[in-house]
């Protein structure tokens, strides 16, 4: 009897202990409502409660005790900021009332890129179903202005019939053949020729085809190593990249990237990769330091790094003309002139990562044109095909090409490539995209519309929560800070950037969020009316975010 009584007492104690925990958890959920931009529906909330309770019966009782109004409401608040990631992306739950039966994708089967695992388990993704010009539509028919050109890439928008027709015709004729062992296809040869003519910052010798920007930058490393081995320089193998740069997510490309989230938990960067200063003048300049003085200091720091490591060990320097995923960071005055002088002094190759900047984005055909960069190697992707097919390219200087060819008998074949390198369908689509860029004078189009785009967004610079708005051509970045100072960031847990992004989505526009940085990079075909819409939604989201900041400051007091 005593044993039975004790057992009952333990169960009762367990229940009330669990109930107390749940009450605390419900309070926590209310806290999340006011601080984070997450949504908890009834099912998700019950899952959280049951994970805390010790018995199913106690779980059922406590779930019944929770106010029904709380159970049935969707709790919204800023996205839980994960300080380990630069990709504080919009993880809003798209379990809206108009989701059709059978169209819930919560807990889907895809391991999603640049997405926290809990998001795929607990939240419905935004599922895009259709594109039309500068707009995309989700599976529920909601329309969004695609203010990031998907991922900086759909330069010609989402419904360019000429690209669809080019792909269809090639699929009917020859859907695939490789380019190994001196066998290839006419589309790959035609595209290589056209690309070499297209790039005019300096004469280039050959084009090598890949499937993405990441593969392009991995290929750059292997080309440079092969080149130095051919020249009998086996120790000249290190690469210098920049903090906050993004060069891709494969192992080598992620190592070249200067973003901590690309390295943490992946045992990166590789030991042959070094990083030097990020050229963000607003954030890193010293008091009273001009842009040119800032550039001089960064060039001197680069030279010191080279001398410390030994010039005989440094193979190449890689840079985006404008840093994209790092926050749309433009080079300060004379920066590339000074950097190029340093690398040339020590016989170090210059790799221009044009994956985002190429094909008109900055108001010039290439970023190298805008900043007078004379690269030895160039990486291309994204707008190369307007993202209608996956394709990238590496442009190789005549000097490097000559060494690779002349030393091939000694070294053997250039044993690098991919099954789909120069695949005919992506090549014909890319070739057609280049024709369209030429025929429609895409650079002129960008230069006509970009002043309205730039001026319209920069007009918000006086907002008390904006530290800096920066950009060139049709690419812009906004950085949220307190007191308009780079030294006064908002508390990460406030998720200000994510809140702004969610307000944009609510009003029908998709942007890129990375921490408290917002990136906007619309298709190059954006019209004047669409720019007006973009600016209008940006303004609405900004006003709502300003109110949110005031609320959070009041709560903190």
From TrEMBL:
<dbReference type="InterPro" id="IPR049704">
    <property type="entry name" value="Aminotrans_3_PPA_site"/>
</dbReference>
<keyword id="KW-0808">Transferase</keyword>
<dbReference type="InterPro" id="IPR015421">
    <property type="entry name" value="PyrdxlP-dep_Trfase_major"/>
</dbReference>
<dbReference type="GO" id="GO:0009448">
    <property type="term" value="P:gamma-aminobutyric acid metabolic process"/>
</dbReference>
<dbReference type="Pfam" id="PF00202">
    <property type="entry name" value="Aminotran_3"/>
</dbReference>
<comment type="similarity">
    <text>Belongs to the class-III pyridoxal-phosphate-dependent aminotransferase family.</text>
</comment>
<dbReference type="GO" id="GO:0004015">
    <property type="term" value="F:adenosylmethionine-8-amino-7-oxononanoate transaminase activity"/>
</dbReference>
<keyword id="KW-0663">Pyridoxal phosphate</keyword>
<dbReference type="GO" id="GO:0030170">
    <property type="term" value="F:pyridoxal phosphate binding"/>
</dbReference>
<dbReference type="InterPro" id="IPR015424">
    <property type="entry name" value="PyrdxlP-dep_Trfase"/>
</dbReference>
<dbReference type="InterPro" id="IPR005814">
    <property type="entry name" value="Aminotrans_3"/>
</dbReference>
<dbReference type="GO" id="GO:0009102">
    <property type="term" value="P:biotin biosynthetic process"/>
</dbReference>
<keyword id="KW-0032">Aminotransferase</keyword>
<protein>
    <submittedName>
        <fullName>Gamma aminobutyrate transaminase 1</fullName>
    </submittedName>
</protein>
<dbReference type="InterPro" id="IPR015422">
    <property type="entry name" value="PyrdxlP-dep_Trfase_small"/>
</dbReference>
<dbReference type="GO" id="GO:0005739">
    <property type="term" value="C:mitochondrion"/>
</dbReference>
